Amino acid sequence: MKLHIWTQDQENYGDEDFARWKIKGGEDFFVPKFKGSDTDATMAVMALREKIECDNPFFRRNILGWAIVADDYMTEFERSQLEYDGKIMFPATELAFA
Whole-prediction pTM value? Predict the structure, then answer.
């Protein structure tokens, strides 16, 4: 099993005083060889939050959710790359959790 974490990115098209936040996709992260319960997954996400999330006046990345998935699970983006290009050139980012 592996832990799948997905995010949402936002960019500020304004400035620090008059922010105009726009959603700009997100990113997927995997913790390979994850062994644990849903509670363990929640604890892992909280421990990895600092490596994943970002918040400054011009860019934000927030965790939207997570799930424990099978080792062969692919994100929608990975599946579409495989379908259209025959290979995955931009895989989800792998993170280590001790």
Answer: 0.90
